[in-house]
Amino acid sequence: MTQDTRLDAADLRLLRQLQRDASLPLVELAESVNMSRSACWRRLQKLRESRIIRQQVMLLNPAALGLSLTVFISVRTNHHNAAWSRQFREVIDNIPGILEAYRMGGDVDYLLKAVVADMPDYDRLYQELIAADLFDVSAGFVMEELKNTTSLPL
């Protein structure tokens, strides 16, 4: 299966179920998508080999771990070259609270998503971030999470 290969209905059922609960034992997974265990296993292997399934993880509850503040950080820079970009990647890679980072088009150069314990913890993260020689950093703090999913629309 390559990225150009279309997924059939059975693949889509399998992927939807895995997005809901990837911890199911193979027997239960196969049963939930109306497949034999061996057919389910073969499809899983093909989906992994083709990198459609890129990783299997457990999702943790940030608030239960004392990380109750989610922050979206907008970054603008005056440096638009490969050397600065590499340095910036190193900085954000070494800040554990930054979960996601995107290079953007438009007014903002980068958008970061971070989780921290509280405002002093965000300030610590901010101090680490501004060491990267940034032009402008602004943050938006999440007051209420309305939707949060990792499931892709299949």
Automatic annotation (TrEMBL):
Record-annotated HTH asnC-type domain positions: 7-68
Protein keywords: DNA-binding, Transcription, Transcription regulation
GO cellular component, one term: cytosol
GO-annotated molecular function: sequence-specific DNA binding
InterPro entries linked to this entry: ArsR-like_HTH (IPR011991), AsnC-type_HTH_dom (IPR000485), Dimeric_a/b-barrel (IPR011008), Tscrpt_reg_AsnC-like (IPR019888), Tscrpt_reg_AsnC/Lrp_C (IPR019887), WH-like_DNA-bd_sf (IPR036388), WH_DNA-bd_sf (IPR036390)
GO biological process terms on file: regulation of DNA-templated transcription; response to amino acid
Any Pfam family hit: HTH_AsnC-type
SMART domains linked: HTH_ASNC (SM00344)
Protein name per Swiss-Prot or TrEMBL: AsnC family transcriptional regulator
Organism the protein comes from: Chromatocurvus halotolerans
